[in-house]
Amino acid sequence: MARFHKEMSIFEALESVPGARDVFESHGMACSLCIGAQSETIEAGAILHQVDPEVVVEELNCLADPGS
After folding, report:
1. Is 46 within 8 Å of 52 (Cβ atoms)?
2. Homologous superfamily, domain 10-64
3. Residues in CB range of 41: below 8 A, 6 or more apart
4. Which partner for 51 in 26, 45, 46, 61 could form a disulfide, CB atoms 3.0-4.6 Å apart?
5. Kind and range of the H or E element at 9?
6. What is the DSSP code string of the chain?
7. What is the pTM of this model?
8. CA-to-CA distance for 65 and 29, rounded, in angstroms?
9. pLDDT tens-place string over residues 1-14
10. How much helix, strand and coil, in percent to the nearest 5, is found in the chain?
11. Alpha-carbon distance 30 to 37, whole Å?
C-alpha cells in the first residue's frame, strides 16, 4: 500500500520520511522553505513547478519503501 498520495500535504510528506526534502528539491521544488507547504498538496505543488505529481509521489513511496 502506498504511503504517499498526491492529495497529501507537502508538510506531511516532509515530516513522514527522512530524505523527502531531497525528492522535492530534485524536482526544483524548495518546499521545505515554502510557507504554503503546510496546506498545499503534493499535486498542487508539483503542478505549480511544472512537475508530474505522479513522479514525485512514486519517488516518495520508493524512498519510504525501498524494496518496492
Report:
1. yes
2. SP0561-like (1.10.3910.10)
3. 6, 7, 8, 9, 10
4. 46
5. none
6. --S--TTSBHHHHHHHSTTHHHHHHHTT--GGG-GGGGT-BHHHHHHHTT--HHHHHHHHHHHH-TT-
7. 0.87
8. 22
9. 569 999 999 999 99
10. 60, 5, 40
11. 10
